[in-house]
Amino acid sequence: MSLPHLEIPAILAAPLTTLPMEFSEIVPVLQISVSPVILISGVGLLLLSITNRYGRVIDRSRFLGDGLRKSGEGNGHVWAQMQILRKRAKLLRASISFGVMAVLCAAVLVIGIFVGSVLGINPTAFVVVLFTACMVSLIGSLVYFLRDINLSLAALDLDFEDVKKRI
Predict the structure, then answer these.
(1) In a domain, 137, yes or no
(2) Cβ contact 117:33 at 8 Å
């Protein structure tokens, strides 16, 4: 029983000595194609911060919900806090989604720059589109993150008002 014959692309079948690029030429290509990795690292740190906030919002929502269920009575202040937390969780989820899209665009950008350069294809249009998509996604992530920060201040204001009534 023999295996089916697979066609190997010419670039892969060529001996290493006949590749379109010399080793000394590939080093600058690697330097250029790896530079978006810095962007991935930065957005990764942003995502770490956002996911920590997201986890705290979820945990706090569960804590407040458990307290309401155990007390068996309605508490308008706690319910208002839970509504704010739900809005914050949605904002943070959107921020995380945009951040992940930015990282994915940057990763595909690295591959596109490298493969385009090695194969002798001009990747300029590809790079412009992906870099723009990456930046738009990053801006979207930051906008939702900022909205969450502002909403968390609204929750703090609600707490201050509740304490003020009790004094």
Answers:
(1) yes
(2) yes
What does the DSSP 8-state code read for residue 3? P
pLDDT tens-place string over residues 88-105: 999 999 999 999 999 999
Is residue 97 within 8 A of residue 51, CB to CB? The reply is no
**CA gap 90, 93 in Å, rounded:** 5
The total number of residues written for the chain in this structure: 167
> What token pair was written down for 42?
């930065």
CA-wise closest residue to 131 among 46, 47, 48, 38 = 38
Q: Residues 55-84: pLDDT tens digits?
A: 999 999 999 988 888 886 767 888 889 999
Q: Is position 6 within any domain?
A: no
What value, to the nearest 5°, has the Cα angle with vertex 103 and ends 144 and 113? 140
CB 85 within 8 A of CB 61: yes
What's the domain range around 155?
A: 36-166
Listing DSSP states for 72-122 in one string gives -S--HHHHHHHHHHHHHHHHHHHHHHHHHHHHHHHHHHHHHHHHHHHHT--
Tokens of 107: 């990763």
Query: How many independent structural domains does the chain possess?
Result: 1
